[in-house]
Design a protein that fits this description.
The chain is of the alpha+beta class. The chain is built from six helices and 16 strands. It has a six-stranded antiparallel β-sheet. A hairpin with a 2-residue loop joins strand 5 (about 105-120) and strand 6 (about 120-130). The longest helix is centred in the N-terminal third of the chain and has 15 residues, at about 10-20.
Length: about 280
Amino acid sequence: MTAYPKIPEAFQEAQAVAAYLRERGMEAPVGSLYDEVLRQRVRAGEFDLMITLGGDGTMLRAGHLCAPYGVPILGINMGRLGFLIQVERTEWPTMLDRLFQGEAWLEHRMMLRAELYRGGEEQGHWYALNEVVVARGQAIRPVRLSASADGYLLTTYIADGLIAATPTGSTAYALAAGGPILPPELRNILLVPIAPHLSVDRAVVLAEGSAVNILVKSENAVLSVDGQVPVGLSEEDTVRVRAAEFTAPFVRFGDPGYFYRNLMAHMNQNPAIGLPR
């Protein structure tokens, strides 16, 4: 059981959920996703389920932790939007009852593996549930990026950056950059340029199983994975993006149409900018 530490009521609610589970004879420790002891227990395979209380960012961090070890994630929305979360704060007792009655199913969402190569040597790799972004750094000028799919040149972009997104990420940064919305069951990489200048300005959906290489052709570029701290890039660096060897398993209820109902409930109603709900 984890709660987002910057939402005090999330921990209060987490304690209530933990008490509910303990009354039913289950072990339910409460912590945060930054708790190293809890993280080690996930890696050791000690948990059958991770319940997270927070927003979409909390779900992203839970996905990074749990997906490599196949631990299912059940989100309870304590944030604003909750594109990734199906259960609202007032619904969890009912939904947990349904879970224990066998009325839930697992949705396996694609993740990405991003590898950074410099001079032919791998410098590191990261995993993303939403997107991998190669973009300009602090300087206010576009970067030049060459994109290839499975060894075949797609195009060269002069833009603020290029997003390589999962279907999950198609409702995040890629959506804000004008990309299409993909259903979560797909296994395709979505490429979306950011503010392209006299370049291809359309999104491209790659075939399932395809990988993309992004070659940096200018200075002042950075790599960011799921909005984490950017990594500085050098000219001639290559970022290779492909499907990860594992998926993020989310606990879902009802029919798969929940995705479209949840999506339509949130479109044009972003409380972060003060629009009416």
